[in-house]
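Hi P.,

Sorry for the delay on this. The queue was packed all week, but I finally got your sequence through. Input first:
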Amino acid sequence: MIGYALCSSLLAIINKYAITKFSYPGLLTALQYLTSVVGVWVLGKLGLLYHDPFNFQTAKKFAPAAVVFYLAIFTNTHLLKHANVDTFIVFRSLTPLLVAIADTTFRKQPCPSKLTFMSLVIILGGAVGYVMTDSAFTLTAYSWALAYLITITTEMVYIKHMGSTCRYSEPLNQEGRAGLSLMPLWQFHCPVCLVCSSASLVSLQGRRYLPRLSQ
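Then the structure:
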């Protein structure tokens, strides 16, 4: 949990710096996806991790999740472009409450305990207080914040649903999701992304890697 919190915090700061210096959100997102795809592929080829071989039937089932994932990262990047990191963190902190509600409503998961739910409501109150006192409030920034909140919540719930209904390894999840998410960028931002995504996905066909860490 500490490692996740550290990586998540650093990622927000690094993305904010990147979008400030490189003001092309679509291309920046594509480069991040491509890095993820290449990283998993290289580690797999070196035998440092295992991922299932790619097949188009799995990709077809996973395509909606990739689209939602793309929208979440796209709105995230635009939020960081128009708002500060504090605003991003505040809206991000609301996702556990929304995910818990969505899990209970749509996935029929058990409700959080009273103490847990109360803690999440307290976080919600803090977020409302932040919005009411934000001196840098702009309609554009908070519009992207609302869009990000909706898409990231949908993405989290949908990925959990896919994880319980489709069997695939975590590296394939990361590589496939990133590779498939490059495809919407072809239509909206970057034609070369279609070639990158297709090449990265097809390159996995028929490959299996054995994990050396477990040997």
